[in-house]
Amino acid sequence: MILIGVDWGASNFRAWAFDEEGEVIGGISVPDGVLTHSGDAMERLKFHINEWLGEWPDVPMIACGGAGSSQGIHRTDYLPVPMMISDLPKHLVHMHGLHIVPGLKQASPPDILRGQETQLFALDESIGAVCFPGTHTKHITVEHGRILDLSTEMTGELRALLLANGGLKVPEGVEQVFSDSVFREWVELSLDTDDAASPFAVRAARMTGLLDPKYHTTALTGLLIGADVAAHYDPGDELTLVADGPLLKSYRIALEALGAEFDECSSEEATQDGLFELAEEAGLIG
User: Fold this and answer.
1) Which of 263, 255, 267 is closest to 239 using CA atoms?
2) Strand 61-65 relative to strand 137-143: parallel, antiparallel, unpaired?
3) Contacts of 70 (CB under 8 A, 6+ apart)
């Protein structure tokens, strides 16, 4: 083991041990997000690392995501875009034995991100458009290694809020089932930005018998993700989709319905590779 990499997100704490080749040889994932943890952040990090390894490791440690937020280990300043991805290693902030990767900011329109900059570092420098689905989905444009702009859609958060409260909350007593065909149908209702259905259409369809209540969540999710995709891409556009699990499947269906051309990249692997490559470029490991 020559390096520990940490990704502290809003909901989860993840860390990995790397060997000399950058291969992951162990890891930990616990539901202790930077926004949900209690107590001193540094003490929480030490607790999780010691619980995992049995002792504090005598190797460099690099962290991205919420570790550099005001709720994290130490608040790092955001780096302004446009900027070259290759400049990122020289901006690592060393604090409490931890090398923290700073996030990015955009002045107009105002936007920020933390964590995706590390994933970008692992991707090809000439990638073009990149989509990072999540609670807050990030859409980023990169040209010849230069991050040009970024845009955030609150798709995941809006979905959670709408399904939990108000007129679009999940019908009581009805077990929700995911359907690929229903999801795609409701994605397509959002793709025409000039004549897209509103979220209320899900309630209306259910109340009038056009939508089986067990597909309520599927329909609303399709509508929101379809709107997200349609706001940023056109048929024939090329992009890279960085995601895992259900989010990868959902955005894949939406982008296919739109007619976009895209490559897929694992979100977790991009984070792991980005942390290791940043540490290498910054001279933390030989």
Assistant:
1) 263
2) unpaired
3) none
Q: Read off the pLDDT of residues 179-207 as tens digits, 9 standing for 90 and up.
A: 999 999 999 999 988 889 999 999 999 99
Structure-derived torsion over alpha carbons of residues 214, 217, 218, 222, reported in degrees to the nearest 10: 150
- Chain-centroid distance of CA 35 in Å reads 15
Q: Distances in Å between the alpha carbon of 134 and those of 2, 55, 115, 219, 259?
A: 30, 33, 12, 18, 21
Quote the radius of gyration of the chain (alpha carbons, Å): 20
Identify which of 94, 16, 13 has the alpha carbon closest to the alpha carbon of residue 57: 16
Tell me the residue type at 229: V
DSSP annotation of 248: H
Q: Are 93 and 102 in contact (CB under 8 A)?
A: yes
Q: What is the pTM of this model?
A: 0.94
Predicted confidence (pLDDT) at residue 124 exceeds the cutoff of 90: no
pLDDT score of 216 more than 90: yes
Angle at 152 (CA atoms; ends 122, 247), nearest 5 degrees: 65
pLDDT tens-digit readout, 35-51: 777 788 899 999 999 99
Query: Is-contact 116 152, C-beta < 8 A?
Result: no
Amino acid, res. 69:
S
d(CA 10, CA 13): 8
Give the residue from 198, 86, 103 showing the smallest Cα distance to 152.
103
> Percentage of residues in the chain with pLDDT exceeding 90?
87
List domains and CATH numbers for the chain.
3-125+267-281 (3.30.420.300), 155-265 (3.30.420.310)
Task: Tell me: cis bond preceding 109? Omega within 30 of 0 counts.
Answer: yes
d(CA 189, CA 124) in angstroms, rounded, equals: 33
